[in-house]
Specification:
By secondary structure, the chain is an alpha+beta fold. The protein has one domain: 3-Layer(aba) Sandwich (Aminopeptidase), CATH 3.40.630. About 35% of the residues lie in helices and about 25% in strands. Strands 1, 2, 3, 4, 5, 6, 7 and 8 form an 8-stranded mixed β-sheet that branches. A hairpin with a 3-residue loop joins strand 1 and strand 2. The radius of gyration is 16 Å and the shape is globular. The N and C termini lie far apart (about 45 Å). The model has no long low-confidence stretch (mean pLDDT about 90).
């Protein structure tokens, strides 16, 4: 039962987007910002910092998807008055869930950071890109979003990463760029 939450993630998210379960267990145990909330209806894993919240994984039970549970959950996070960030894979004609995730965030008022390019590598070195989506209770710049994502990379994705992956998977200088820098 302890690893049931990870099995739920594995069934829904692409493998290259998942952290190793041991990595996540250490984050839960040792990083004060990293948290997990779960019910039979949803599972959300996030990191709450002083001025923003990074939504690492959000999963609504397939049986209750479309009933508004995910939007209510996002609204509860919006009520905390902090910027919300999420990494969302680009739409893919071969992956209907990727399109649904994009529509979900857009429907809930998130905007795509149009000027930030975010490219990581799988464990076997294959590049993959993600979009950064954000919602903020007040006007914010993409510069601030980029700075927040640097914190996410350094403190969450790279937390004890060498132990789990043998490398740093998300060095901000390597994975985050302005569109004009490419």
């Amino acid at each position: 039962m302890e690893q049931e939450w990870y099995t739920r993630l594995e069934k829904y998210f692409p493998e290259h987007e998942l952290k190793h379960p041991e990595h996540m267990q250490e984050l839960f145990a040792e990083h004060v910002a990293y948290r997990r909330e779960q019910t039979s209806e949803y599972l959300i894993i996030y990191a709450e910092f002083d001025d923003f919240i990074f939504i690492d994984y959000l999963l609504v039970n397939p049986k209750t998807r479309g009933s508004g549970i995910g939007s209510k959950l996002i609204d509860s996070f919006k009520n905390r008055g902090k910027t919300l960030l999420a990494e969302v894979e680009p739409a893919d004609d071969n992956d209907k869930d990727a399109k649904k995730r994009l529509r979900f965030y857009e429907k809930n008022g998130f905007r795509k950071a149009e000027n930030i390019v975010y490219t990581r590598e799988t464990d076997d070195g294959q590049p993959f890109s993600m979009h950064i989506y954000y919602w903020s209770p007040s006007p914010t710049s993409e510069t601030q979003i980029l700075e927040n994502m640097e914190v996410v990379c350094e403190q969450i994705h790279n937390f004890h990463a060498k132990r789990h992956y043998g490398r740093i998977p998300a060095d901000p200088e390597d994975v985050l760029h302005w569109k004009s820098e490419q």
